[in-house]
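Here comes a specimen:
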Amino acid sequence: MSENGLQTRAINTIRFLSADAVEEANSGHPGTPMALAPIAYLLWTKHLKYNPQDPAWPDRDRFILSAGHASMLLYSILHLTGYDLPLKELKNFRQLGSITPGHPENHLTPGVEVTTGPLGQGFANGVGMAIATEHLAAIYNKPDFPIVDHWIYAICSDGDLMEGISSEAASLAGHQKLGRLIYFFDDNHITIDGDTDLAFTEDQAARFEAYNWHVQKVDDVNDLDALDKAIENAKVDKRPSLIVVRSTIGIGMPTKAGTAAAHGEPPGEEELNGAKANLGWPIEPRFLIPDDVRKHFREAGAASGQRQSEWQDLFDEYAETYPDLAAQFVRTFAGELPEGLERNLPDFEPDTRGMATRASSGKVLNAIAAHIPELMGGSADLTGSNKTDIKGEPAFSVDNRAARYIHYGVREHGMAGIMNGIAAHGGLIPYGGTFMIFSDYLKPSARLSALMGKSVIYVLTHDSIGLGEDGPTHQPIEQLAGLRAIPNFTVIRPADANEVAYAWLAALQNREGPTALVLTRQAVPTLDRNEFAPAEESLKGAYVLVELGDGDPQVILMASGSEVGLIMQAGKALAADGIANRLVSFPSWELFKAQTISYQEQVFPKEIRARVAVEAGVTQGWDRWVGDGGRIIGLDRFGESAPYEEVYEHLGITVDAVVNAAKEALRALR
C-alpha cells in the first residue's frame, strides 16, 4: 500500500474509533474528532516529542485539547500510539469507572496534560506552559545542553476563542512573544446553536495579528502538506502562532456533515454507516484498527519514545557538569520542596499595632523566595496592593526569561488559567495576587485548579469590609463561602503575621490542590506568643489561642483573620464579668477538617455548647462549628463605603455584639 493510502487509512481509523465510541455511548461529540483527525495524525506521527511509556517525561512536547468536547480525538490517538489506554476504555467512553470521561481529565488518563472542557481554559493553560518552558530554559539550559527544549501545541474551537479568558491569555502571550506556542484554530463555522454567523463574525486572523501572533491559514484540514508546512513555519517565527484551519465538522456524514447536528449528539447508525461508506471504511466491525495502521502508529510512538533515551543521556552528562542545577531540576519536577524550608520563615515580634496580613505576607514571601527557586508569581496589576513582588526580582519579559515575576495586567481569569498551565507543566509553583472580590473573576479557573489537583497559590488581599472606603463593590461578602464550597480547595485566612508565615508554608506543602491566602488591607495586632499558643498550631486549621477567666470555659469564641482581634477583646470583657471562655483562632476549615476527630473535639469539646463564631462575611457554613447552642456574627448583606472602623460598627461586628451573643447563648442553654 502507498504511503498516502496508509495515511488515509490511519486518519480514518482515528475518525471512526471516535465516532464508534460516541455511538456506543449514545453520548458525546463526534463531529470535531472526525474533522480534525488529520491534525492529530500529523502531530503524533511526525511533530510531537513524547513517550507513551513515560507520559510525564519533563522534556516532552505538550499537547492540549482546549476543545475538550472532542475528547475522543485525544483518546483515539493516545490508544493508537501506545499509551496505557486499552481499547476497552474507548468502548467504555463516558461510562462510570472508565478513564475516558466526557471531557479530558489529567488525573485520570495517561497522556492528558490538563483537564479541559470549559472552553478557553486549555487555551490559557498553554500560555502558562509556554511561560514555564521559556523560564526553565533560561534557568537550566547551558551551551550544548538544551535540556528544556519543547513546544506547546493546542487545538481550539470557535467556543474557545469566544470565551473571554482566551482574549486575556492571547493578549499576554502576544505581548510576551511566547514563540513556543503553536495553536490550531478549528474554523468549522459551527457551534451548538448553528452557524457561527449567529454571534461570531469578526476576523479571527486579524484579531490574533493585532495580539502580535504569527497567523497562517490552511484552507483544507485534509491537506497534510499544507499543515506540515504551517507547523514548520510556526517553529521559525519568534511569536506565538495561530494556524487557522478550515474543516468540515462530521466529515462524510450524509446529512449532518457541516451542520450543528454533527456537533454534540451521536451520529445515529444510519448516519455513521453512511459516513463510513462515503470515506471508504468498513461498516463492520466497530472499533476497527487495521493491523498495518496499528503497526504504523505504534512505530511512531516507539520512535518518539526513543528521544527520551537520547535526552536522558544528555541530562546525565549535564548532571556531571552542573550537578547542583541537575539536582534542583529533578527535585522540582518531582514536586519536592527544599529541606528545612520552615527554618526560613520569619518570626514577627509582638506588636499591638501590628500590620496588615497582606504586608506580612509580602515579608514572608521575600524571606522564603530565595530558598524556593521554583516559586514563580505575579499579580493582576495590583502588585503594590497585593505585596506579591520579590524585592530585586525583575519582571519576566522577552528580554529576561530567567526572571520569575509576571505582570499579568488586569486579567484575573487569564492569570488563573495561566497559573494552572504553569503548575501542570511541572518544575514550578505558581502564585498570583488580586483583590479577594475579584476571585469571582477567576473562579472557573480556580475550580479547575482543584479538579486537576494542581498546587496553585492564590494571594487574595483586601479580604473584607475592612478595606473601608472603596465600598460594597470591592468589599467581599460571599466570596469566602464560595471558595470554601469548592472541593479540594484550601482557604486560609490568618489572624496575624506569624499565622501568615505558616499559611505560606501550608500552601507550599499542599501538593494536591490549590490554596487561597486571604489577607487584610487593615493592620491587625501581632500576637505575643508567650501569652498565646504558638502560631505553628495554625497549620491544624483551628487551635486554642488561650483560655481567659477562672475555672473551666463556659463559652467558646472563634474567628478567622482580622476578627480574631475582636474576640480577644470580647474574651477579656467576658472574663471581667466572671465568664470563663476559650478563644479559638480558626484560619482554615479545610485544614481543620483534615485533623483527627479527637483533635477536633479537643478544640471544641462537646460539653461546651455555648459558642460564638465571628467573621466579616456571610454566615453560611459556620453553623457546623457553633452547633445548635451557638451564635454567628457575620454579614448576610452588602457593606458600606466609609472608614473601616465605622463600617464594622455600623454593621454590628463589634466587641459588644460578641459579648452579648455569648451571654445570650449561655442563657438559652440554662
